[in-house]
User: What shape does this take?
Amino acid sequence: GVGRDAGNVIPTGARPEDGYAAASALWDAGVSIDAMLCVTDSLALGALAAAAARGIRVPEELQIIGWDDTAMGRLAVPALSSVTPDNAAAADAAVRLLLGHIADAEFAPEHVVVSTTVTHRGTTRR
Assistant: This one.
């Protein structure tokens, strides 16, 4: 039920320091945040560090979830909750669509949905 507010979406790079800067920019702008979904675990780790630097308790005051389920996220303290996409299914669909388009320039685009798994660890409450 949470709508997308353009003021709460920060365009950024993919490094942990970018996640740190993006999270800090939201707090500096006075945005009240109780949860963050980051598009990579690297960004989420940066946001986690920014929260720690501000004394924000995770997950009590802020929940953070990343995307990729990387080893570094699993080693973080607290361990990062993360979304794991089915990369094999995404690759299969991408290759199928690309080959279809190569074979036929009139190949119709498709909307492909790939399954994901959410692993809750120490950065989210369940």
Observations:
- The mean pLDDT is 92.
- Residues 1 and 120 are 20 Å apart (CA to CA).
- Residues 87-103 form the longest helix (17 residues).
